[in-house]
UniProtKB/TrEMBL annotation:
The lineage of its organism: Bacteria, Bacillati, Actinomycetota, Actinomycetes, Micromonosporales. It comes from the Bacteria. InterPro entries: Papain-like_cys_pep_sf, Transglutaminase-like. Gene3D superfamilies: 3.10.620.30. This is Transglutaminase-like domain-containing protein. Residues 89-143 form the Transglutaminase-like domain.
């Protein structure tokens, strides 16, 4: 299978189930995603306060399940406008996954990327997930930022459908910049939770490589090399180099399949924000 054919096909996570007709234009799909989801920690720009009991909605892993929740609140077609309280309350990862699912469904090669955004917190690289889609080359897109409310709130100076590579560092690029002394590990992570440094960076390398192999986990899932107190730095360096470059395609697969520390197992440890530590069995 060619690279583009591989990323045009759905994964277990992005398989959306039956869908009505969707627009084929990537921007139109991104706007659609933006109107179906709301970030559980970012409801204020929309004048909405999320009830505390809905915070764990973001533990929903699979695109079909996300859409089932959306339809359960409003059975109208997905293309119909939805009030903030009718949207799925997730995280940046869920925007990336659903956008990836819609792009693949309509024939555009796409993949989820895990890394760090420079445009969310001043002077800091915040843990973040976006979608990468093929349009005369691989482009980064942040569907979460497509709403005018978000563009204004974060004073974006670029098109969220074409995020500059210096504004979003994929996990491998962030790791390599820190390993080579071009960046400070303490400026990468989740500042609100005081999660920064090498452990965060290594976890992002592992999760991004998994996503490049179409296993799109949750941001707080961990396994193998991401769990090691004394990780194999050579292995993480190789994974980082391939992730930073987004290929070569065959090498991404070979390293992932041949490395038990990188390959996602049937069970992962999930360090959920509101529900504590869990052992989760993934769908095959």
């Amino acid at each position: 299978m060619s690279e583009l054919a591989y990323y045009r096909a759905q994964s277990v996570v992005t398989e959306p189930g039956p869908l009505e007709d969707l627009p084929g234009d990537p921007r139109a799909l991104g706007l659609l995603v933006r109107d179906l989801l709301i970030h559980r920690e970012g409801t204020a720009p929309f004048g909405y306060a999320l009830p505390a009991e809905r915070r764990e909605e973001a533990e929903t892993r699979y695109a079909a399940d996300i859409l089932a929740i959306v339809r359960g609140r409003n059975p109208a077609p997905l293309t119909a406008p939805r009030a903030p309280e009718e949207r799925f309350a997730g995280t940046c990862r869920d925007f990336a996954v659903l956008f990836c699912a819609f792009l693949r469904h309509t024939g555009t090669p796409a993949r989820v990327r895990c890394g760090y955004a420079a445009y969310l917190v001043a002077g800091f690289h915040a843990d973040h997930w976006v979608t990468e889609y093929w349009q005369d080359g691989w482009r980064l897109a942040d569907a979460e930022m497509l709403a005018p409310e978000m563009i204004e709130a974060f004073a974006l100076r670029f098109d969220p459908m074409d995020v500059p590579r210096e504004e979003f560092l994929v996990g491998g690029r962030a790791w390599r910049d820190c390993r080579d002394g071009r960046a400070d590990p303490a400026t990468f992570g989740v500042p609100d939770l005081n999660l920064t440094g090498w452990e965060m960076l290594g976890g992002s390398v592992v999760r991004d490589l998994a996503a490049l192999n179409k296993v799109e986990v949750l941001p707080w899932d961990s396994w193998g090399a991401a769990e090691d107190e004394d990780p194999d730095l050579d292995l993480l360096d190789r994974a980082a180099d391939l992730g930073a470059a987004g290929g070569p395609f065959a090498a991404l697969h070979l390293l992932y399949l041949d490395s038990p520390g990188l390959r996602v197992p049937a069970e992962v440890v999930s360090y959920t924000t509101y529900g504590g530590e869990r052992l989760v069995t993934l769908r095959g």
